[in-house]
Hints:
- By secondary structure, the protein is mainly alpha-helical.
- The chain folds into two domains: 1-80; 81-116.
- It is 88% helix and 0% strand.
- The protein contains five helices and no strands.
- Helix 3 packs antiparallel against helix 4 (52-75).
- The radius of gyration is 20 Å and the shape is elongated.
- It starts with a helix and ends with a helix.
- The mean pLDDT is 79.
Amino acid sequence: MRELVEIYETRLRERVGEGEYERHEELVRLLARNLALEDILWEEILLNIKDIDARNELLKQRNQIIKDIHTEFRALKIEIPTLVEKKTEDFMSFLGELNDSDKERDEESKDDIDRA
Length: 116
């Protein structure tokens, strides 16, 4: 995780500039850590996609991290990357597809039972 934090910190430092980085170094580091943590939480969510309880708990944790990330971006007066929002939209779409597949499977099962 340390390497990922350093990558994010470097990218944020370039984005905010040296002057802002010097004034808000701790905030940049915190934001870098939270961005790395959000990446790790996504990996865990995808690994636990079928375990509803674990997935829900991880999503709650991720949502809190996202709120913190948004606050930190606003404090640094830089635009929030759309990547975070894109991940959320893609994931919600994926969950919708899973839900639709489950409903179709249930309907097929009911039809098979009715035929029997």
